[in-house]
């Protein structure tokens, strides 16, 4: 737990040891379980890590609570130090959420099913989820809202790099997704659908094709075959603009969807990508800022529910296992807005 929390904060052993006023050798033995820190040292370590001592105690007792392999959508060029830090942060948020669930009951309107990828292919799985959630035919509006209505905690934060889009894991019966605030809305929506695919298909058994399976799920979930197929028979740049506005996905995702459905040839796909590259749209597509933003609200709602019970901001932080002085944790309720009188 100490090692995971330290990695999540981006600290080396030497830096944490100095901040907590312990020797690096002692910290190393604490992390490997060769020694147990006394109460005073544990308090200093918790303070240096921005958590409570109770958080460290409880996290250390949770069976299977740490060292999970998170599902992660990242580029091959993402630095291992970066994605390992994000994976550690996801682990911490799982424990923080677990602690809050002891105080707040989340009644979800829907649920995210866990399907066996051996028995259910990704396209069928996407259709099942849409059917169970009774989603309207056509484009998905407010994807974050649908996820949160199914009890999924979505945390948006700056990953410090555009090379990692998002990651996900289950917290007992509740799922959690972290998304990168740096990416545009169209890419964010595809990431959310991609991570939903992981949660649905890969909660127990995984195959060697987990990423392609999550991509297939996301494509069908955001752009159902029966609805979008007629729109993809002839594609040019102008039509890609229109389709992006309608479906809320990137032009590149639309090209890949047409290719997946075998509505364009390999040569047509290559020519479309060349046209995007010639205009610099492979790295920065137009129209992304025109799409309705995807903004998580559930974590703030949990904080608001606790505030309505009379808990102060430091109380809420402490309940979630954050240092009471922490002001930027995701469960902090929104500050009241000024009113003109």
SSE blueprint:
Layout: H1 2-8, H2 13-20, H3 24-31, H4 39-49, H5 53-61, E1 71-74, H6 80-100, H7 122-132, H8 143-149, E2 153-157, E3 164-171, E4 174-180, H9 185-201, H10 210-222, H11 225-228, H12 237-247, H13 251-260, H14 266-278, H15 298-308, H16 313-319
Parallel strand pairs: 2-4
Antiparallel strand pairs: 1-3, 3-4
Helix pairs in contact: 1-6, 2-3, 2-4, 7-10, 9-10, 13-14
3D architecture notes:
With 341 residues, this protein is α+β, with helices and mostly antiparallel strands. The protein has a domain at 1-49: 434 Repressor (Amino-terminal Domain), CATH 1.10.260. It has 16 helices and 4 strands. It has a 4-stranded mixed sheet with strand order 1-3-4-2, sandwiched between helices. A hairpin with a 2-residue loop joins strand 3 and strand 4 (174-180).
Q: Helices and strands: which structural class? A: alpha+beta
Count the E strands.
Answer: 4
Beta-strand percent range: 5-15%
Q: What fold name goes in the CATH topology slot of the domain at 1-49?
A: 434 Repressor (Amino-terminal Domain)
How confident is the prediction overall: mean pLDDT? 91
- The global form is globular
Numbering strands along the chain, what is their spatial order in the largest sheet? Answer: 1-3-4-2
Q: Note the gap between the termini.
A: 50 Å
Q: What keywords describe this structure?
A:
single chain, 341 residues, alpha+beta, 434 Repressor (Amino-terminal Domain), 4-stranded mixed beta sheet, 16 helices, 7% strand, globular
In short:
The protein is 49% helix and 7% strand. With 341 residues, the chain is of the alpha+beta class.
